[in-house]
Amino acid sequence: MNTKERRHNIIQTVMEIGKVNVHNLASQYNISTVTIRSDLRYLDSHNLLIRCRGGAMASSEIVLEHSLADKLIIRPAVKKLIAQRAAAEINDGDAIILDSGSTTAEVANYLSEFRRLVVMTNGINVACNLLKYKNFEVLMTGGILRQKSMSFYGKQAEDSIERYHFDKVILGADGVDFHSNITTHFELDASLNRTMCKVAKEIIVVSDSSKFNQSGIHKICSLKDVTTFITDADIQDSYVSALEQSGVKLIIV
Length: 253
What we know:
Elements: H1 3-17, E1 19-21, H2 22-29, H3 33-45, E2 50-52, E3 55-57, H4 68-71, H5 76-87, E4 95-98, H6 102-107, E5 118-121, H7 124-130, E6 137-140, E7 144-146, E8 151-153, H8 155-162, E9 166-171, E10 175-177, E11 181-184, H9 187-198, E12 200-206, E13 218-221, E14 228-231, H10 237-245, E15 249-252
Parallel strand pairs: 4-5, 4-9, 5-6, 9-12, 12-14, 14-15
Antiparallel strand pairs: 1-3, 2-3, 7-8, 10-11, 11-13
Helix pairs in contact: 2-3, 8-9
């Protein structure tokens, strides 16, 4: 296990049980307490946990990963407003990527005014919502199925996306903060999302304000990389300033 993998596992353990001990971690990974303390200092400096005497505890800034079923019942009315506004950023004839997730699945429900779109997605729920549009060309990434998020990931998914060029990618996020910026929990989801961003002219992030000042474990992109950010009116003033200073088009619903 390399350093990156070990630190990822430490974060997962802290999130699951709330607190970890230096000596227990050193024994678990068969490495020195000096190395473990170095890991904990690094993770603390990135706000991924909080150092405490003899170990570390969970940071309130790290948001827990919800299953797709859980996400569907979190702020549904706000997600619908965000999704409806995101659809207004699309032009007829566009080639777009809809990331997996509950908000992006809602975006798929607001595309009835378009006569022609090419839509690629890695989300099974998103694809199901696109079935009603007879004139759309709908593409699935394929790949390895992750049941918790009902989405595909992996090299096959990334390779399929890299064969195309898209006008826009519409991304959800597990967390948005000043340090890590746009983040998610699952490393291979983050890798796939970065590929999506690479092949699209515009990056549109759809995220309700509860995701601000939270952080997933893996970074997707920086705030300055985002073209348009769509969120709700509960967004903190500090994030309004940060997004505007980064040159991001901020839309508040």
